[in-house]
Amino acid sequence: MNSGKSYLVNGYAGSGIRRNVMRKLRLSGCGTALITPFRNGAVDYDTYIRLLKRQTAAGIHFLVPLGTTGETPCLELSERLKILELTREYSEGKPVIVGGGTNSLAQTVAGMKQLDNYGPDAYLIVVPYYNKPTQTGLYEYFKAVAGATDKGIVLYNVPGRTGANLKAETTLKLAEIPNIIAVKEASGNYSQISEIIRNAPEGFSVLSGNDEETLPLMSTGAQGVVSVVSNLLPAEMVQLSEALLKNDMDTARKIHHRLSPFFRNCFVESNPIPVKAAMALCGLIENSLRLPLTPASESTVDLMKRTLSELNINN
Fold first, then answer.
1. Is 307 inside any structural domain?
2. Structure pTM?
3. What is residue 23's predicted lDDT score, i.e. its pLDDT?
């Protein structure tokens, strides 16, 4: 797949692998795919700061703003920059992995350049959506993205949203590029993810992209999770990931089984609709989303009320 071809991106020839870029950042534990709170249609920055403080106080291992959970496609550039600036300011030194990626190489690279001065430690770059590229196209795309920055790149494979699957073979070839530091795997394909875990080079992290798969993946060698559930339950997800990193399976199983209903119910409607409903029920945010997403249906709100009550969660 490494054809050596050159792809000119806004004046940058993103062809070469930057062998002088070393893996300086190793991701492990729980990172929160942060929601974006809104109030009266505008980003509620005061609430966002409170949520960041809540995350760091719970011991979260890294922060992931501007991903799918953050409704980033519906944010203006000025809003994205402010969110990243605040995330960095209130991160308490935790790594900040900022969501990025489009289905255009030029736009992806331009987006990274716009965010570069606001403190990201790495970029979470989603598989290009809608285009349905081949594996060769995916390899060349991610190689060019990595070649356009000295920051770390986290691959994000979520075929249920993008329409294209980043296969294990392609992920492992990309893992040889020094500043491609991790993959967030949300394919739900355990066999594929297991192959990546088994063959990943030293320093490359495999992160679960689905909360309910945290235990099975980390118990077989994945390093962590990018979590939606930790928006509401950061301490519990930190405890789960740390138990798994310590191979404390008794503790991990107890937490996993307790939280399983919430893992499942956070995806009865499109993310982040259910988790925002749960957070609103706990008084953390206003239950507001931007179109084309809408607040949870009455049945989902009722489901979340029951789930929170069963878990004895109220804030």
1. no
2. 0.91
3. 56
